[in-house]
C-alpha cells in the first residue's frame, strides 16, 4: 500500500487525522462516517447528527461578516489550514440586511463590537461542528491575552447587549419587539458622571 511504503505509522496517522478533520470542518463527511480518529484534545462527539470537534484550534480572523459570524483561517493540524465562515455558538445578533432601520443600526454596532473583541487577543475555537445550513461551522470562540486572560466571545457579546441568546429554534425579530427583547435580557445599571 502507498501509505505503508512512504510514511511511518505516526506520519500515516497524522495524514489520516488531518484529512478527517478537514472533511468534518468543510462539511464533506457524512453523518454516519464522520468520526475522526481520537487524539489528545481532538476527541469528537455527536451533536444532533453533526460531529463536534472539541479543539482548541488556533484561528486568525480574515473578516467580520456581522455580529455573530466571521470568516477565519483555522489551523486544523501542523501546516494544515482551512478558511471558513464561523458562526458563534449560542448567539444571535441583529442582521445587516435588516427589516427595519433600528435593526440595521444595532447590526452595525454589533459587527463593530465583534471586530473589537476578535482582534483583542489570540483566537481559539472550541466545540466546532458543521452549521445546519452548511457552508460554515458553529463554534465557541475564545480570545485570550496576557493581561486579561481568556474570555468567551459570545458571553462578552451578550453582556454588552449587542446580541441575545440563540438555542437553534426560530429567531425572534429585532424589529418591533426591541423593547420586549430588551426586557428579557439582563439590564445593566447606567452611571452618570453628573449628580
In words, what does this structure look like?
- The chain has 195 residues and is of the alpha+beta class.
- It has one domain: OB fold (Dihydrolipoamide Acetyltransferase, E2P).
- It is built from 5 helices and 10 strands; from the N terminus they run H-H-E-E-E-E-E-E-H-E-E-E-H-E-H.
- Strands 3-4-5-8-7 form a 5-stranded mixed beta barrel. A two-stranded antiparallel ribbon has the order 6-10.
Order of strands in the sheet with most strands: 3-4-5-8-7
Overall number of strands: 10
Number of domains: 1
Average pLDDT, rounded to a whole number, is 75
Order of helices and strands: HHEEEEEEHEEEHEH
- Tally of individual helices: 5
Top-tier CATH class: Mainly Beta
| Beta-strand residue percentage | 25-35%
List the uncertain runs.
1-5, 28-42, 178-195
Topology-level CATH name: OB fold (Dihydrolipoamide Acetyltransferase, E2P)
Q: Roughly what percent helix?
A: 25-40%
Distance between the termini: 80 Å
List the helices and strands and how they pair.
Layout: H1 2-6, H2 9-26, E1 44-47, E2 50-53, E3 57-66, E4 69-77, E5 80-88, E6 91-92, H3 101-118, E7 122-130, E8 136-145, E9 149-152, H4 153-160, E10 164-165, H5 178-184
Keywords:
single chain, 195 residues, alpha+beta, OB fold (Dihydrolipoamide Acetyltransferase, E2P), five-stranded mixed β-barrel, globular, disordered N terminus, disordered C terminus
Give the gist of this structure.
By secondary structure, this protein is of the alpha+beta class. The protein has helices at 2-6, 9-26, 101-118, 153-160, 178-184; strands spanning 44-47, 50-53, 57-66, 69-77, 80-88, 91-92, 122-130, 136-145, 149-152, 164-165. The protein has a single domain, classed as Beta Barrel (OB fold (Dihydrolipoamide Acetyltransferase, E2P)), CATH 2.40.50.
